[in-house]
């Protein structure tokens, strides 16, 4: 399995276009290199936050060779710690855990910055990456509760797409990417490297559903957690909306089930 499972994907149409983050969330291919990310809002998984490059303590952080300005992470609040100057939220997204610190104007700040933020709810955090005592955190400008779970799905898909755009701009030029293996139907093309012969267990399934079942049964078998949807997207190579709908249908039909959270699945 790829050592960086949330860094690449195949087959996506422009996920940013249908995303609640808007077009400004995507890193344009032309932004690659020094200073390219300073004017953009980069969606990241927490794994990417923790593994971002920083050549020396005073240098900017970068992911996929692109320097980071503002970043956005989405996850569940696992712990809340309040001091006179800030509120620290421990946020976990299935790929890792990071502290997100929201600074208060005064010890009696009543500006509403923390309204609705409770333990065990999903939040969207926007801020900048910092490091203190060799531990990374996000210095948050906003933390808000998420009420529509579609935003969580879109965030993970957008993380994959934006990372691919930075790594392989020619493949995503024009807002889309050609289907792997030259598949005629595009969004139904099975992921590169998937073994189609000799496995007829899901022969009657639609192509996307079949590819999902093959990936999850093969790659997710060794772990009780199964596979994260971002890794499934990387391997299947289908459009984001179609893949998520197929996963939901497979769960409803009893072919897949969720494990540690809504974004990890295994075969039944």
Question: How does this structure look, described?
Answer:
This protein has 268 residues and is α+β, with helices and mostly antiparallel strands. Helix content is 24%, strand content 24%. α2 crosses α5. The chain is globular and about 60 Å long. The two termini are 21 Å apart. The N terminus is likely disordered.
Radius of gyration: 19 Å
Q: Which blocks of ≥5 consecutive residues have pLDDT under 50? A: 1-37, 174-198
* Content-based structural category: alpha+beta
Shape assignment? globular
Query: Helical content, roughly?
Result: 10-25%
Strand order of the largest sheet: 4-5-6-8-7
β-strand number: 11
| Main beta-sheet strand count, sense and barrel state | 5 strands, mixed, barrel
Pfam family, one: tRNA_anti-codon
Keywords: DNA damage, DNA repair, DNA replication, DNA-binding, Nucleus
Subcellular location: Nucleus
Protein name: Replication protein A C-terminal domain-containing protein
Write the layout of secondary structure elements.
Layout: E1 41-43, H1 46-51, E2 62-63, E3 66-67, E4 70-82, E5 86-92, E6 97-103, E7 122-132, E8 135-145, H2 149-167, H3 169-172, H4 207-219, E9 227-228, H5 229-236, H6 240-252, E10 256-258, E11 264-267
Parallel strand pairs: 1-4, 6-8
Antiparallel strand pairs: 2-3, 4-5, 4-7, 5-6, 7-8, 9-11, 10-11
Domain OB: 71-146
Family: Belongs to the replication factor A protein 2 family.
InterPro entries: NA-bd_OB-fold, NA-bd_OB_tRNA, RFA2-like, Rfa2/RPA32, RPA_C, WH-like_DNA-bd_sf, WH_DNA-bd_sf
